UniProtKB/TrEMBL annotation:
Lineage summary: Bacteria, Bacillati, Actinomycetota, Actinomycetes, Mycobacteriales
A Pfam family the protein falls into: adh_short
Protein name: SDR family NAD(P)-dependent oxidoreductase
Domain of life: Bacteria
PROSITE patterns: ADH_SHORT
Length: 376
């Protein structure tokens, strides 16, 4: 599998000429200018907002900030950076043990953090969570909807998996809305609030195999766009971050991503801090903006390009039917599956082994180089 130089994902506040250069760069033989730029460019967006020790006069001083999915990945990294900028972090995730590890780490650096274990797909649990944090902290200033799940599976393998769509919407959309609806009255009463939603570059590019994931993120985008027009006069604003590919546990099952240019969780956390401090309407990348333009100006051509991407990149191992490492094998599998399904399972397992060992095709490599950060 090819190894690529690290890519940079720039906010679309970068100069327009850099964006244009990245779009006309050749797809073969060299990375585009956006991908060749130093990786530190993404870090630079948040470097001025960070400090090694928590600040009592930082841009987030005296702000109480709820962040979901705070036990690992982007959430944990963002929690550290929020605390370093003076914010009080209210950590939310299902695992108390992991939350306490993040909390202790933040406090060891001199920051302030509180751990709140909660399954945010449970409406009763969310109601209790909101009552508790409002009672204990009074004012809740900001919310970061970071928790999410991703499913990379083609529609051809999804005909009998409606539950995938239900579970994805439950966490990525309905759970976020529960928190927004629960905290909005308190924010409006204080005439201030800011809500950051971690969306995806996939909403802008419509990458194949992510129908469940992209639909859930697009729904939250649309909800926030509408609600923002209603709450602006109350002092409550929204930021949507169209996050490019980030190396977190969520993408680990897709082994081909090992060769992809990605952001680190710390670089992604810079974007979260920027969203909290600057409070723009949207943060994204030139590639994502280009994807939106292509869909608007040349939809048929864009569909053809994406169809080629669909053919170039294989389904993930999980989608192909291979169990994740450590997963217990079902008992008496052949007894209940029948000969047809057993043969299908065998073929999918063989395909997954080939996908693990075969390098990416030339088409796939070219797309990966030219358009870094997309969830192929």
């Amino acid at each position: 599998m090819a190894t690529l130089a690290p890519a940079t994902f720039l906010a679309f506040t970068q100069p327009a000429d850099l964006l244009v250069q990245s779009l006309v760069a050749p797809a073969r033989g060299a990375l585009s200018p956006v991908a060749r730029a130093p990786r530190q460019a993404a870090t630079a967006m948040g470097s001025s907002l960070r400090s090694r020790r928590p600040s009592t006069t930082g841009p987030l001083h005296d702000r109480r900030i709820v962040i979901t999915g705070a036990s690992s990945g982007i959430g944990a990294a963002a929690a550290h950076q929020i605390a370093a900028n003076g914010g009080t972090v209210l950590l939310v995730a299902r695992s108390l043990d992991k939350l306490l590890e993040v909390k202790d780490s933040i406090e060891a650096e001199g920051g302030t953090a509180f751990a709140y274990p909660c399954d945010i797909t449970d409406s009763d649990a969310v109601e209790r969570l909101i009552e508790q944090i409002v009672h204990e902290h009074g004012t809740i200033d900001m919310l970061v909807n970071n928790a999410g799940r991703s499913i990379r599976r083609s529609i051809a393998l999804s005909h009998d998996r409606f539950h995938d769509f239900e579970r994805t919407m439950s966490l990525n959309y309905f759970a976020a809305i529960r928190l927004i609806l629960g905290l909005l009255p308190h924010m409006k009463a204080n005439a201030f609030g800011h809500i950051v939603n971690i969306s995806s570059i996939g909403v802008q590019t419509s990458a194949p195999r992510f129908s469940a994931y992209v639909a859930s993120k697009a729904a939250l985008d649309a909800f926030s766009d509408v609600v923002a027009t209603e709450t602006l006069g109350s002092g409550v604003t929204f930021t949507t971050i169209h996050m490019p590919l980030v190396r977190t546990p969520m993408i680990a099952p897709t082994t081909m991503y090992d060769a992809f240019p990605t952001l680190s969780p710390e670089e992604a956390a810079n974007l979260v801090v920027r969203a909290l401090v600057k409070r723009p309407v949207e943060i994204g990348t030139p590639v994502g903006t280009f994807g939106e333009l292509m869909h608007a100006l040349a939809p048929k051509i864009t569909d053809r390009i994406l169809h080629q991407a669909y053919k170039a990149f294989p389904d993930s191992l999980a989608a192909q039917g291979e169990r994740n490492p450590g997963e217990k094998a079902p008992e008496n599998n052949t007894k209940s599956t029948g000969p047809g399904l057993s043969r299908r399972t065998l073929l999918l397992a063989r395909a997954s082994r080939l996908a693990r060992t075969q390098p990416l095709s030339g088409t796939a490599t070219a797309m990966m180089r030219l358009l870094p950060g997309i969830h192929w």
